[in-house]
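Need tokens for this chain, all 368 residues.
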Amino acid sequence: MGKSGRRSNGEGSISLNKQGLWIGQITLFIDEKGKQVRKCVSGKTKRIVSDKLSELIVEKAKNTITQNDKITVQDWIVKWMDIYKSRTLKKKTIENYNSAANNYIIPNIGNIQLQKLTALDIQGLINKLIDKQIAPSTIKYMFTVLSASINQAIRNNLVSKNPCADVKTPKISRNAIKTFSVEELKQFLAQAKEHYLYPSFLILATTGIRRGECLALKWKDINFDTGILTISTQIIESRTYGNIIDTPKTECSIRKIPISSVIIDILSQYKKDNNDWIAGTKNKTFVSPRNFNRAYYMLLERAGLNHLKLHGIRHSVATLLIEGNVDLKSVSLLLGHSTEGFTARTYIHPSQSMKKNAMDKISDLLIK
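Here are the structure tokens for all 368 residues:
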């Protein structure tokens, strides 16, 4: 029989087993089935075990005792996605979350018990991905997914803290985004004029809307009487689900854009009653994002212009609007951004002429 020592109520019990090891037990909580959940500690002396039990009592009082010490990172990520994300996120976002989990998190740290996951484990994963030259933005996205899942685990009392708080992630450098000049945009549109996708390219170049928003447009989305273009849907390219017709990601992306009468007149000449889609195929369906890109790069080459990503048209429009002294708030609303700061930080790239004008104003004030 082991010697036992009864402590005060709620402080657990200590006993000496046959092997001469002191064992301490304490009831942590009652689970949803009404069963006592207990935790055991051990030590070479009664004093060591008593101190360990005292630490558990403090943790219990602070509500930092966790319920399940067996669940792994993989178990939790899968459960978190199923219970908390699969019904609230858009399909493309779910695909991106699953990609981060299946390609990076689960293969590297998935078998570690969630409670035993440390900042060192996560930092090791990030360093490994850096060494493999994985893009910093991809690493950052993976880290965000992992941290969000652990934050939910904290709320579920599965872990007491988030080890991601002590991890350093790579900085994402913002490269200067290339844009078209006015003459280059004119050159591109001239080359595209005879192409069946010309109306879509014209809308892109005069409004700066996103590719997915442009491809989802139907002729009914343009009010030819008022000159208003309504953006309410988008087409998303997905490896898992194919091409998806969906609502925009944020409420700010749902918007009405005024189009000039000149552009309205041009578009009216291309309107076809037998096809609902502005970027429509012969089969009366929308053009896929991939085929739209192919057409764009083909026309770019024929026009003799340097390679520029399709999204560069959007950047170009934003920059041209700013250079035309359009206020930042209007530009932000037209582009469908949630904040003016995001517009300025991401899309507005002052040209050399804008910088020169700014410096000329300083010189005028001080010298003249």
